[in-house]
Amino acid sequence: MSEDVLSFEEAMERFDPVLGFEVHVELNTNTKMFDAAPNTFGDEPNTNITPVSLGLPGVLPVVNGKAVESAIKLGLALNCSIAEKCHFARKNYFYPDTPKNFQTSQYDEPIAFDGQLELELEDGTPFTIEIERAHMEEDAGKLTHVGGATGRIQGAAYSLVDYNRSGVPLIEIVTKPIVGAGSRAPELARVYVAAIREIVKNLGISDARMERGNVRCDANVSLMPKGTTEFGTRSETKNVNSLRAVERAVRFEIQRHAAVLSAGEKIVQETRHWHEDTRSTTSGRPKSDADDYRYFPEPDLVPVVTTEAWIEELRAQLPEPPAQRRKRLKAEWGYSDEEFRDVVNAGVMDEIEQTIATGASPAVARKWWMGEIARLAKQAEVEIVDLPVTPAHVVEVNALIDEGKINDKLAKKVIGFVVEGEGSPSEIVEARGLAVVSDDGALTAAVDDAMAQMPDVVEKIKGGKVQAVGALIGPVMKATRGQADAGRVRQIILEKLGVQG
Amino acid sequence: MSERIVELSAADLAAKLASGDVSSVDAVNAHFEQIDATEGQAVDSADPHKGTDGLNAFLHRNREEALQVAQDVDQARANGEQLHELAGVPIAVKDLIVTKGQPTTAASRMLEGWMSPYDGTVTKKLRAAKMPILGKTNLDEFAMGSSTEHSAYGPTRNPWDLNRIPGGSGGGSAAAVSAFQAPLALGTDTGGSIRQPAAVTGTVGVKPTYGSVSRYGVIAMASSLDQVGPCSRTVLDSALLHEVVAGHDPQDSTSLNDPVGSFAAAARQGAEDGGLKGLRVGVVKQLTGDGFQTGVQQRFNEAVELLQSAGAEVVEVETPNFEYALGAYYLIMSSEVSSNLAKYDGVRFGLRVVPEGNPTIERVMGASRAAGFGDEVKRRIILGTYALSAGYYDAYYGSAQQVRTLVQRDFNAAFEKVDVLISPTAPTTAFKIGGVDESADPMQMYLNDIATIPTNLAGIPAISLPGGLAPEDGLPVGIQFMAPAREDARVYRAGAGLERLLNEKWGGPVWSSRGDVATTVRDFAAGAALGGK
């Protein structure tokens, strides 16, 4: 089989891509989906387990009510219909990461179905994704293959199983086939997964950290020759675990499919593995629609029944949808498209909102978060939100400027010290003696010195060239090590010379 | 003295414990004496899979712990503490129910030596009531069978005739209660595993309403059919034990939220003079006649006449869809079995067989399951896997579920006319060990459950009680009452009423005519040692 790729541009000339996504969201409930074991990440292997997590003889599952609420909320956020009654089903297959050798999932009766999600591509182009379903299921344990070169099962001497993740609540969101994205398909893939991540984070139902596998995307790609409408054979690229990877994987698969089809060969329906290092996919196991999981209704669980009142109660708890919120904030703050996009991309919308809510103007908030704080983050090679600067700090710094206690230049230094953990801005100003010199006596002496050293400048000002005053302010600032209030210095000079400013 | 203690009903023993006539330690010791005198010796001391030359009702004897509990009860009673009515009354537990501190095998090689790290909910309830657990009783492997011949640890023998089966799957619990090894036992009933053994051992067994008793900690065979229930020698005793183990369990989603019924009160009421007056009893036409042994049918007819004479209104009812119940049962049960038993793969617990050559996970799982499961278990896993397969699901599992609904409708229609239904529990008395050639025709064995299966499909309660001995072979016959879901009290009322009438008719309980079991076992073992059968 050919693993060549066609250039993306050439692929786009000949084919239209069809996408489909299955995104798994791990919920942040306290306990597992069917089990009282804790749902926490990163603990010692096989410590967050009970007899139920291990599938010991005699155990029974019990549905986590909180997880059902999370699923309903997500369904509502995706504009889905919510099932009045739905069953769990058993998906039977033997694999050691699944202690019962079946996964308890939902099959023909998902809790949420027939939704849609409005997206905006980077340039603001709208795109609607149709959601087929969102269903509840449990995560598998984690296998670690030891002894092989690649960390994969092939060539491994043995494998270790950690059942801490076994039974963690998952919601799987399945889209309907997505057509019409054209050359923007890779971008759309990233934007879609980013939107899901943002929604579940906003709902508070998942930690939504892709690097921990809280949000995992399986991307289906197929191509159809331009001008045709019949879908081609698809490949399913598994567990693409960053937004960038989602975009690249879709792009790669489009190029690979195009090369295979252009060579007159057929696409094999299979799962593919994404490799970040080579930025390519390799063949996984063949997959067909006839994979026989022998689904049947889970006899150990009673159906989940929802009532209108319950759904409405949950609907009332939904936070403002992220897209709607962005539109509102942009209008309220009066930022330009570009300014607002930068804010969103920098991930500081929440910070700016809080900064404004705490008393700063939108312009001031943006100036600090997108200016000095962003610079410090870049310098430290971390995300802005990971710096220990809070909206309260920014407001405090700004108040110190307004009160004339510090100037802009000092304020930047203060923020730097906040980042270094020296305390609040006021504490830092106090401890480091950074307040501007506004004592007229000290300033007047410095001004007199400056005027004595530069009589020519003094003459110019007297002659009406008021703008020359800057040449005197410089030395005064130098003499006071930058702590002088420049406005006040100017005022003193003009007063001394009897000139109107 | 000790012989008399073991012949006491649980209710009578409880009264003697309460009055101080008997101590719990005495009671436990007396029962272990009987167990030791009747269990027999290992046929091959090097191989536990060959069973014993006696009853072989127990797979594990829990002597130390049982005596400790008994001592605690005696001490508590001496201190004047308030105790549960059955505190100190010993009990045997089917080895399908997990018990901390004792092995749980499901009578399978797959779980040989496995110790559960947790207690089942019913086990906890027994402990809370301070009932000493004598040990774990034998069964068909994973409760699959009607004879206890499918145990990986040798068959249990019927105390009425050691060459015969004690029924199954709960043959161990029924034989233990029948042979005075225990006054009470817990069983599980998926298609008749409590009631059919009760019928062929001359004891009482109850399958409660589905959800009446928690299944948490009960090794699953078929989740939608399994139910834990009591085994005893009297109807009242089963009612008392049912009250101990019943109740909602947050760890079992399918357990009912109802308050526990007053089963003992219903049993006492049924046994009163006139307790059956006006009770509307429906004879299930489809569960009589063809296929039922002559003596079974005869005793059944006599029981119905007795009920009539005591003032019950007897009518015949039709349940046309019962014809399909057995087929539907074997599809649903085996489908659930195929999934429930998938967890036994040698990875986390139980038997692990590592085959020669490259031990991949598939090969280890395959070899472990090949070695760990017996033929009947494999037969059902294969059948269920097939029934759930894509392309066959609708034809098999799907239509079986439809039949299930039709069977439920038959019951609903019948219960509009009558309070309880009655039938023989099993079509025959106990057959000979090895008497059914299953490799040629497994259906022959499955037909034993023809009268018990419909209640499991419908989730309704049913009792089996002794109806006397079949004239042709002198072996016990079982009579079954069935009632609507959540009306378990009715089967106790009807059962206790009929029990009283029959005891009056025969001049005592069914076992009073039987020879001493310990002597029978001794003679049998001696005969076996001489090379006889």
From TrEMBL, chain A:
Subunit structure: Heterotrimer of A, B and C subunits.
Transferase in keyword set: no
Annotated ranges, domain Asn/Gln amidotransferase: 350-497
Alphabetized Gene3D superfamilies for the sequence: 1.10.10.410
Keyword Nucleotide-binding recorded: yes
Catalyzed reactions per annotation: L-glutamyl-tRNA(Gln) + L-glutamine + ATP + H2O = L-glutaminyl-tRNA(Gln) + L-glutamate + ADP + phosphate + H(+); L-aspartyl-tRNA(Asn) + L-glutamine + ATP + H2O = L-asparaginyl-tRNA(Asn) + L-glutamate + ADP + phosphate + 2 H(+)
InterPro entries: Asn/Gln-tRNA_amidoTrfase_suB/E, Asn/Gln-tRNA_Trfase_suB/E_cat, Asn/Gln_amidotransferase, Asn/Gln_tRNA_amidoTrase-B-like, GatB, GatB_Yqey_C_2, Gln-tRNA_amidoTrfase_suB_CS, Gln_synth/guanido_kin_cat_dom
Function field: Allows the formation of correctly charged Asn-tRNA(Asn) or Gln-tRNA(Gln) through the transamidation of misacylated Asp-tRNA(Asn) or Glu-tRNA(Gln) in organisms which lack either or both of asparaginyl-tRNA or glutaminyl-tRNA synthetases. The reaction takes place in the presence of glutamine and ATP through an activated phospho-Asp-tRNA(Asn) or phospho-Glu-tRNA(Gln).
Record keywords: ATP-binding, Ligase, Nucleotide-binding, Protein biosynthesis
Tree of life domain: Bacteria
Family (UniProt): Belongs to the GatB/GatE family. GatB subfamily.
EC number: 6.3.5.-
Stated name of the protein: Aspartyl/glutamyl-tRNA(Asn/Gln) amidotransferase subunit B
Automatic annotation (TrEMBL), chain B:
Keywords, comma-separated and alphabetical: ATP-binding, Ligase, Nucleotide-binding, Protein biosynthesis
Enzyme class: ligase
Record field: catalytic activity: L-glutamyl-tRNA(Gln) + L-glutamine + ATP + H2O = L-glutaminyl-tRNA(Gln) + L-glutamate + ADP + phosphate + H(+)
Amidase domain: residues covered: 54-491
Alphabetical list of NCBIfam families matching this protein: gatA (TIGR00132)
Entry protein name: Glutamyl-tRNA(Gln) amidotransferase subunit A
ATP-binding is among the record's keywords: yes
UniProt subunit comment: Heterotrimer of A, B and C subunits.
Annotated organism of origin: Kocuria carniphila
Pfam families named in the record: Amidase
Family: Belongs to the amidase family. GatA subfamily.
Entry annotated with the keyword DNA damage: no
Domain of life: Bacteria
E.C. number: 6.3.5.7
Residues annotated as the enzyme's active site: 94, 169, 193
Encoding gene per record: gatA
Lineage start: Bacteria, Bacillati, Actinomycetota, Actinomycetes, Micrococcales
Role of this protein: Allows the formation of correctly charged Gln-tRNA(Gln) through the transamidation of misacylated Glu-tRNA(Gln) in organisms which lack glutaminyl-tRNA synthetase. The reaction takes place in the presence of glutamine and ATP through an activated gamma-phospho-Glu-tRNA(Gln).
PROSITE patterns hit by this protein: AMIDASES
